[in-house]
Amino acid sequence: ADKVLGRGDGSLVSLKFTGIAVFAAHHALPYVRVMRADRLSFGATEGSKGAVAAVVRVHRSTLAFVSVHLASHKVPARLVQYRDVCKSLGAKLGNSFFQLNEQFHHVVFMGDFNYRCERIGGEEALALIRRGAAHSRLLPLHDSMLRHRAETGAWDGYDEPPMAPTLWPTYKKYEQRPLTDTTVDGWAAGVYRIKFREPVYKGGRVMDRVPGWCDRVLARSHPHLRPYFFPLTRDEAERVASGAAPDDAESFSEPQRRAASSLALPAWALSGAAEPLDYGEDGADIDPRLESSYDSVNDVLTVSDHSPVRCVFRLLAFRDPMDDFGDGLDAVPVCLRDAVVAAASAAPGAAAAASAVA
């Protein structure tokens, strides 16, 4: 739909970009419309860093998808950039008197937020990942996004879906790495690059990198619409992908949704709880049916030092009353219709994607 072009690491000759693309299933095309798309560059010195957004209408519900690539090593700057995105793209995509969060039913941010793990060394982080403690120790105790949100109120009103056990740190990985094999002793050391040499134009120094969750998906809804937009479990997402009816009562049961939502880490982290949520060794204590669809795609785009992430949401969309005309039926003023919305954040230099299946 749109993109922010620029140069940077690995792209001195050719340009890379932050972008977004919107896809819809063929049978959903009559009910899905891209209303507007626009972009915001963070400046010439920031290369391809910026934000690109598209507003999509599914029936009568509006969703804003925002693909971002935020500043690296500049935590305060990210809060400023987030506010700039909400103000500037809100004016470009909708009414200039309202910011992004105030004028659409649902908003999804996705992309490279550039938050790293802090106050831990690379070797120690690798040890936690290797023994299956990435989510019980590394993320809640060292993730700088959780800390930044708790201390500054950044991304207020946004929720991060519960992570799947295999959503390991998405950065910094070896480029051209082999397929991930967790049965191999020391597998994490073959995936994550904790020392590397900077390009000559940056000084050529040997740098340390701690594996971290740079690539994320955050979503928010107007308060009274929160029950109508929520992440699916992996089992539910696979049912939809296989063509199963999305309104299967057993598949989308309320108890199952509550159970899956209870796995979300930010709930305890932002409330200041003393102990992290324990996923168990390698997530072994989680019912597979309740694993989140919010996951990293670990063995795709291995040419990048990032891994893409993806999440599938269920949308209860307001339906156009005119849909109920025909076959002698009376119009229903306001009603709901199921839709499935997927958000995916690709590695920097590629487009993020949003898709809708009504």
UniProtKB/TrEMBL annotation:
Gene3D superfamilies: Endonuclease/exonuclease/phosphatase
Domain Inositol polyphosphate-related phosphatase: 21-223
GO molecular function: phosphatidylinositol-4,5-bisphosphate 5-phosphatase activity
Pfam annotation, one family: Exo_endo_phos2
InterPro entries: Endo/exonu/phosph_ase_sf, IP5, IPPc
Superkingdom assignment: Eukaryota
Gene Ontology biological-process annotations: phosphatidylinositol dephosphorylation
Cited PANTHER family: INOSITOL 5-PHOSPHATASE, INOSITOL POLYPHOSPHATE-RELATED PHOSPHATASE DOMAIN-CONTAINING PROTEIN
Name of the protein: Inositol polyphosphate-related phosphatase domain-containing protein
Organism: Cafeteria roenbergensis
Lineage: Eukaryota, Sar, Stramenopiles, Bigyra, Opalozoa
